[in-house]
Design goal:
The complex is a heterodimer of chains A (203) and B (357). With 203 residues, chain A is an all-alpha fold. Chain A contains nine helices and no strands. In chain A, helix 1 runs antiparallel to helix 2 and helix 2 runs antiparallel to helix 3. The longest helix of chain B has 38 residues. Chain B is globular. Classes of the chains: A mainly alpha (203), B mainly alpha (357).
Chain lengths: 203, 357
């Protein structure tokens, strides 16, 4: 049963990954990318890491990929122009891909021979009766608390950076102030003027 | 033959399939009548009669509508991306229904008792936005595309506050398993999470949790594109948003998915805040009753809570005017996000320093 699920999900992941790079329409590419994420989340569930699987879906598929899709849909991509540089960039791209493949093979080989956590640390076995959410929490908030906080700070810096880059205060723009609107009364909002016949109003 | 049925894998598959079918049929039948209730309540507020022709009191109206949708022609626009155009409503429907897998209807009556049930619900509701974006983009038309973009921004924004409010409940319960969360709210009514959970001694947390519940309700309206936040399909600006180019069965699928999501949100409200299947008083006196009967009655209690929550959502549609888009975003990011962060801090502080057990 698990083997069938694994092969189905693995096949879906790889097929979707291939289609990401081979699809002609960029929007289709992003949709296949989302399929790949989703199948990867399924593989996590098979590994017993259901918390990570759900986080992958909530964060990457539910938020990041939506914005990605958003941007790609709004772009007006010229396909012929995109394809012109293919032969020119092929060697560089090939070198990068080759390095990545080699690295992945080394990592996979090391994990296969020495286990996921290397030689020194004993890998965390999931104790029966404790959900892996709790196990992750125990490790994350005790042994790795400083790294965890540091990762949060890095994200905070990135967020502030994005805000600083895009925040502009234009003078002369009328903005809505809800508090001011609600606080308005007939006294502050209007003025009753008695107009004598034949005179008109002047400020 | 008997050896085939005594195989545990086969039994498991049959039981799960049966459970899934039961839940899907139950949800679809409920939707038919809740949709009618929605229209009737809306009509009642406006002093109209609402649908009253098909069947007694119009009870069969939804089935007549269903027949009409199915028998009409499916029109696909010439410039549309055919596959994605038809995939979008299917995806919406599937995602709207898979969420029900983790909802516990009564003790033990749940399709999949996941340890990360709440996260699963959050994940599935965050995926729901894809059906809308894909439908809007594949239509190859201006209004649907604008509606889809609005909807994506809106749903992503309100997911943030929904997630943070859910964290307050997780902090109170100490688990992400929905059945355990409901179990902890057993007994008297003040054990419900909306009154702070953990009994009368912790009632002081009730104001915080009542605010959290109210914010969850409003965020649920925004997340499911219900009025007053139905900007993706604001008929005065965008005709019908992402649904403009859809007709016949694909439209019906979008519609069913939308209502299924709404009822799922009602179920989440009752599970997270109002004790799920717990009737609000100890049920020890049912110890001698047949377990099936007890479970059935408890499921009815849960169903009643869902219907009450749905009534409030329907009333919100009838009595609240539509928000403007910038006001919607302001509410989501400048009001709900900071408020829910403060709520999370309050509840976690209470959890560490103040909890009386």
């Amino acid at each position: 049963m698990q083997a069938i699920a694994f092969y189905l999900l693995a096949f879906a992941t790889i097929a979707a990954g291939l289609l990401v790079v081979s699809a002609k329409n960029p929007v289709h590419s992003v949709l296949f990318l989302i399929t790949a994420f989703f199948s990867a989340a399924g593989l996590f569930v098979l590994l017993g890491a259901e918390f990570l699987a759900m986080l992958l879906i909530v964060v990457y598929v539910g938020a990041v990929a939506v914005l990605f899709l958003f941007v790609v849909m709004m772009l007006d991509v010229d396909f012929t122009a995109l394809r012109q540089g293919f032969a020119q960039y092929l060697p560089i791209g090939g070198i990068v891909a080759g390095f990545l493949t080699l690295e992945m093979i080394f990592v996979a080989a090391t994990v296969a021979s020495h286990g996921a956590a290397g030689k020194n640390a004993t890998p965390m076995a999931s104790a029966p009766g404790i959900p892996n959410t709790e196990m992750i929490g125990r490790v994350l908030y005790t042994d790795y608390i400083f790294f965890f906080q540091l990762a949060g700070l890095v994200l905070l810096v990135a967020m502030i950076g994005a805000i600083v880059l895009t925040l502009r205060h234009k003078p002369g723009v009328k903005r809505q102030d809800i508090g001011k609107q609600i606080a308005r009364t007939p006294k502050t909002g209007m003025e009753i003027v008695q107009i004598k016949p034949g005179e008109g109003i002047s400020e | 033959m008997s050896a085939f049925f005594s195989n545990p894998a086969v039994t498991w598959t049959l039981l799960t399939t049966g459970g899934i079918l039961l839940v899907v049929v139950w949800v679809l039948l409920s939707l038919a009548f809740l949709l009618l209730a929605d229209r009737k309540i809306w009509a009642g507020v406006q002093m109209r009669k609402g649908p009253n022709v098909v069947g007694p009191f119009g009870l069969l109206q939804s089935f007549a509508d269903f027949g009409k949708f199915v028998l009409k022609e499916i029109i696909i626009p010439a410039g549309a991306d055919k596959v994605i155009f038809l995939l979008a409503p299917l995806l919406s429907l599937v995602l709207a229904f898979v969420g029900w897998a983790v909802i516990p209807f009564a003790p033990g009556w749940v399709v999949s008792n996941l340890n990360v049930g709440i996260l699963y619900l959050l994940a599935m509701s965050s995926l729901g936005v894809y059906g809308i974006i894909m439908g809007g983009w594949a239509s190859n038309s201006k209004y649907p595309f604008l509606g889809a973009l609005r909807s994506a921004a809106q749903m992503v924004s309100y997911e943030v506050s929904i997630g943070l409010i859910i964290i307050t409940v997780i902090l109170l319960a100490g688990t992400m398993n929905l059945s355990s969360i409901v179990d902890q709210q057993a007994g008297w009514i003040w054990n419900w999470n909306v009154f702070g959970g953990h009994g009368l001694k912790n009632i002081i947390l009730a104001p915080v949790m009542i605010i959290a519940m109210g914010m969850f309700f409003i965020s649920a309206l925004a997340e499911t594109n219900r009025p007053p936040f139905d900007l993706p399909e604001a008929e005065s600006e965008l005709v019908a948003g992402y649904q403009v180019e859809y007709s016949s069965t694909p439209y019906l699928l979008f519609m069913v998915a939308e209502y299924s999501n709404i009822v799922l949100m009602c179920a989440m409200i009752s599970v997270l805040f109002f004790g799920g299947w717990n009737p609000g008083f100890p049920i020890g006196f049912t110890a001698g009753w047949p377990p099936f009967l007890v479970n059935f009655l408890l499921a009815l209690v849960f169903y009643f809570k869902i219907v009450v929550a749905f009534f409030f959502i329907a009333m919100a549609k009838a009595i609240v005017p539509r928000y403007r888009y910038d006001q919607l975003m302001r509410l989501g990011w400048k009001v709900f996000l900071p408020m829910s962060l403060v709520l999370v801090m309050l509840v976690s502080a209470w959890r560490v320093f103040g909890l009386q057990t």
